[in-house]
Amino acid sequence: MRADARENRARVLTVARELFAERGLEVPMAAIARRAGVGIATLYRRFPTKESLVMEAFAEQFAVCQGVIDDALRDPDPWRGLCTVIEKVCLLQAADRGFTAAFTASFPELHSEVRDRTWEHFAALVRRAKDSGQLRADFSPHDLTLVLMANSGLSGVPVEVATAASRRLVAYLLESFRSGTDVLPPPVPLSLDLVLS
C-alpha cells in the first residue's frame, strides 16, 4: 500500500472511531469520508461495508475485551475474574459509545467472530463463579445485558464523569451479585441488542 493510501486509511479509521463514539454506528459512511477528507469511492475501496469498517475501527477494543475474558477464565479466583470482566467492559462502554454499539451490533461478522465466543466464555465464567459459591445462584449471563443497559445511561455525560459514575454503579451491582444476598425476581433473557434501544 502506498504511503498516501496508508495515511488515508489511518485517517478514515481515526475519524470513524471518533464519530462512532460521538453518535453511535448510525453515522453515514459519507459523513465519515467527508470528515476524513477522502472521497466516498476511496472509503468503499478500503472498507466495502460498514461492518468491515466497524470491525477494523474497533479491532483493538475487541481484542482487549476478549483478552479480559480469557484472563478472567485463567484467574484462580472465579469471583475476582467475573468482577474484573464486568468492571472493565462497563468502563469501555462508559468511555466509548461507539465500541458498545459495535459490540452489541447485529452485524453477522460480529456475531460469528466475536460475540458468540465472548458470550460463551462469559457464560463459562459465570458457571465457575457459581460453582465456587461466591456468585448468587440465580445470576444469569443475561444479567450482563441488564448491567450494560444501566451503565449505558452514562453515555451522555463527559467521559471523566461517566467512567467515575460507572465504577460506582458497578461496585453497587457487584455487591448485589454476591451469594447470600436476598432473593431477586427471576432473570429476564435480554439480548445484547437491547442495549442499543
Automatic annotation (TrEMBL):
GO molecular function, one term: DNA-binding transcription factor activity
DNA-binding region boundaries: 28-47
Cited InterPro entries: Homeodomain-like_sf (IPR009057), HTH-type_TetR-like_transc_reg (IPR050109), HTH_TetR (IPR001647), Tet_transcr_reg_TetR-rel_C_sf (IPR036271), TetR_SbtR-like_C (IPR049445)
UniProt name for this protein: DNA-binding transcriptional regulator, AcrR family
PROSITE patterns: HTH_TETR_2 (PS50977)
Protein keywords: DNA-binding, Transcription, Transcription regulation
Keyword DNA-binding found: yes
Domain HTH tetR-type: 6-65
Membrane spanning stretches: none
Listed Gene3D superfamilies: Tetracycline Repressor, domain 2
